[in-house]
Structure prediction request, 118 residues.
Amino acid sequence: MTNKDLIEMLKHSNVDNYSDPFAKDYISWNILSKDLENRLIFISEVENSDDGITMEECHTNENYWSANYPISLNYYPYNNCKIYKDIDYNSFYFIYTEWGGHSPEKRCRLIQEKLIVT
Prediction:
């Protein structure tokens, strides 16, 4: 899925993140809970450039863990994410596996159209 595809999907989905009880916990990156994971269905993988996946993060003044950190599918970790949909609330989430700690850890973030940058 490209940035353009993602934006189109969100525009046509009638997303109401405010009714989703999990949304507030995932407005920034967080460890994926089993409760949320059990509600999600796979939608797509992020389409990577011909150069492959970069580990470079988006250049911004926002902290990576901030709720305002921009979403750019060209940068890590978004370029290594899968997109899922909450079957009950029509919310969309990014999920990737973080390999940098002691053991693999699934991280999740609510997709908010207002944060997508190209």
